[in-house]
Amino acid sequence: MNDKIRIRKAELRDVKTIAEFNARVARETENLTLDPDTALLGAKAIIKDPHKGFYLVAELKGEIVGQLMVTNEWSDWRNKFFLWIQSVYVREDYRKQGIFAALFHYLKDMARYKKNVAGLRLYVEKSNDIAHKVYEELGMTIPSYDIYELIF
Question: How many domains does the chain have?
């Protein structure tokens, strides 16, 4: 891992970059074009309301090069939260340099000290073999259930 990587919680000043990264990841993973205004409002909404979650950003030389968003899911079975990792993006010119690993380890270390967190979860496109390999190398496993959705 690159020791020069700085991880921090995102702030309002970061929303334009976050919205652009979200648009890039949507194009790359789902061939989906996001409305720029909606993406910007969505990034602002989570930063302004920590109950929705938060973003972590990775910086090198003062420039944001990666991000992930974290949301909460209450588990009544465990009486604790699961933290869901979403909106993962690392700029193409910084991939395979430990940026996501730095974000992941920062979040994992943060979560381990909270008594109300049961673990971390994320979802990934089934065909994204590179991401599957990265997540498995970080110790994550595939659970025994599938995710269903209904989009409105």
Answer: 1
